Amino acid sequence: MKISRIAQVGAVAAVAALALAGCAANETPGGTTDETTAASDLSGEISGGGASSQEVAVQAWTAGFQTANPDVTINYDPSGSGAGRESFQAGAFPFAGSDRAFKVEEIEAGPFDGCVDGSGIIELPTYISPIAIIFNVEGVDALNLDAATAAGLFAGTITNWNDPAIAALNEGVDLPDLAVTPVHRADDSGTTENFTDYLFQAAGDVWTYEPDGVWPSTPVAGEAAQGTSGVVSAVAGGNGTIGYADASRAAEEGLSTAAIQVGDEFVEYSPEAAAAIVDASPLEDGRGEGDLAIELQRTSEEAGVYPIVLVSYMIACQEYADAAVAPLVKGYLEYVASAEGQDAAAAAAGNAPISDTLREQVNAAIDLIVVE
Fold first, then answer.
1. Quick one: angle between helices 190-202 and 147-155, nearest 10?
2. Could you give the 3-state DSSP secondary structure of residue 328?
């Protein structure tokens, strides 16, 4: 089953400058620049945007890239995957971040106004992170959930925290007589699409809605919040709340997270468990050269695998209508995919660095970008 389904995309978000100044970091104690900085001949400014899930990683990548290239400014607007893809298609962004790849039919329909007519696009799985099920229930610090119970909590068929289905998975936990308040994204979100893909694949008899970046409007109840930050804030600010968010943000806020049943075990999220399911999953069929969309295997019962994982992509043109942006985008993506860039993001965001095998594929795709 493919990860994505056609999402109804919202209006294009305005670009919000989020440039990180890195020039000062280039100076040695004596006030001179290092060899890497001195060797850089890149200059200019580009603005991208999209997935809020990888915002912290993008900040780390931007700081590192601008340190090595002090005459370059990278802006990123974390307005959500849907807005990022739409802005990229409209030519407003020369690159975008998205928690799902474009569908084959979306690529065929086009257009991609920032690309040369007939140019392909590249989609690079450079950010891998578990999606945590986060909750805030007074007196409960840990929780086990299987797919059916998680689906029931978000579908509204389980409405109280002391429901027998939850109690059966959490022996010895004092579950309160408290209403469940599920929190979901209000915006078109790749995180939502990945999360609902897990629910649909693993508990389709309970979660009967096709995977989509837009949360189903009826009959699924709950509270809507804008972006990852909104969901995290809503869960943290309530009692009886449950939501889903990139695991790095859950860790930042110190929120309680659920362990998910895989086979006979309950597996807590970790970068290693997220990376394991990605390496075990194939690329989607029918893709062009440089389009590295991954078909995630959500129902795996392999030991140590965490099934609710997000793969966020960097998306770019193979050939740009504005040739001046090509070297900046290519250089930035090369840093994003590098071991240095991946380690910097992992240290900042807690995501899983891509494997060396995947890096080889990503670098081959980046090499397709035409630089005059």
1. 120
2. helix
Contact 235, 255 (CB under 8 A): yes
Gap between the Cα atoms of 102 and 108, Å rounded: 10
- Per DSSP (E only), the strands in the chain are 44-50, 72-77, 95-98, 121-136, 143-145, 181-185, 223-225, 241-246, 256-262, 265-267, 309-317
Q: Which residue, 198, 192, 190, is CA-closest to 145?
A: 198
Transcribe 260-326 into DSSP letters.
EEETTEEE---HHHHHHHHHTSPBPTTPPTTB--B---TT---TT----EEEEEEEEESSBSSGGGH
* Residue pair 180/2 in contact by the 8 Å Cβ criterion: no
CA–CA distance, 158 with 288 (Å, rounded to integer): 43
- The pTM of the whole model exceeds 0.85: no
Q: Give pLDDT, residue 52.
A: 87
CA 275 – CA 311 distance, rounded (Å): 10
Lowest mean pLDDT segment, chosen from 1-15, 106-120, 197-211, 351-365 = 1-15
pLDDT beyond 90 at 24: no
- Return the SS3 of 133: strand
Q: Is 227 left (phi over 0), alpha (psi -120 to 50) or beta?
A: left
